[in-house]
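I am writing to request your help with a piece of structural work I have in hand. Thank you for your consideration; the sequence and its tokens are set out here:
=====
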Amino acid sequence: MKKTLLLSAFLAVSGVMNAQWTAQTTTVPEPSRGVKDITIFDANNVWAISRDGSGSSAPVANAIRTTNGGNTWVSTPIDLGDPTLSVNNLVALNMTTAWVSAIDGSSTTGPWPGGIWKTTDAGLNWTQQNPSAYTNAAAFINVVHFFDANVGISQGDPSISATDFEMYRTTDGGETWTAIPNSSLPNSASGEAGYNGGNVGVGNSFWFVTNKGKIYRTQDRGITWTKLNTVSGLSDFAGTNIGGEIKFSTESIGCLLKRTGTFTTGTFSLFTTTDGGTTWSTTGTPTIYSSVSYIPGTTTLIGTGSAGSGYSNDHGATWTELDSGIQRDDSTFLNATTGWAGGFSADASTPGGIYKYTGPALSINTVANNQTKIVAYPNPANNILNLKGASISKVVAFDILGKQVLNQDFSAQTEVAINVSSLKTGMYVLQVTNDLGATETIKFAKK
């Protein structure tokens, strides 16, 4: 049986949409299809994948992409060679290269065949990677994640070992994968399993959640792992009458939204962390929103749910309403002006499968400079230095004497490539500025 953290389904909520959001057409042919794993590269280029909103648990394997800010979306079936496979998650490197994990979740007893697939042509063709993994009768893959073009991990439930999750790591873009050794993984509890949703990656860190109310975290791109407790009473991240989701803005700052009761009748409470999930503190105020997300690099939350949408600059203690009366599913924002939220499509031509934020720029609280993190690789660099992190708008480089040797502007991109081939061999200092004005300093060596 497919284990998903995203348990909400289509709700027939009436109301009048205001100017804060514009309904767009995903062109997905099946009815009652939502979207998840919205990945925004800039104001024009966005990926997402479909999810089932009908409650039928039918296999869903479809990608949607836009290159013009959602004015038009192109829906493409994700052909994995087996129509029974349903896509768990998508992680996109750019608008042409992405990975998905997928599984046949129709069986209640197993086996559950599945694995990892990669595309390099915008989803037209997919190639399976690490095909010998997740073949045990008890295997169940939950997620694949890539930190950059080379380093990635995959996580599945315990199957080879009775006490450790089946996990793999790659450093060459998925050409070869190595099992993460048991010595690097905390022991799982009896019957502990992961979920197909609720997994978060920021910078060098990645978190996944379990049916025992635990969080597993790596801070070094999957080499070592720590098992973390959460909050009182959260015994399962996707139980019938208890659940939760985690979101992170930086590698340190995050929140946990706890559900008590069902999605439709339950209450939701927010907890925050400033140490990557090691400890949690409550905001003390229930929220009407059943899902939250951060504007990256800020402490500003976007809340969505059957009640509509809103935003909070104080981790959910108080909210400013954006709209009401129209259901919004999980959202993703690039910055204070660019974001999308899921809806549910009636058919391939009717708007409403996804919503674009078109309201005024949101008031935001920027995270202190020393709490952001830009990943630079390779370091030392020869010709190209890649930077990945919060929405990058400007990169300035100085030599050891303080002379400016490079100055480039970008359109709020989460990953950029800097040509350093003309620089002399030696040490340099980069000042990387995101679109919110926060600046981070990074040292790198030119070979």
Notes: The domain at 374-446 is CATH 2.60.40.1220 (Immunoglobulin-like). Residues 9-17 have pLDDT under 50 and may be disordered.
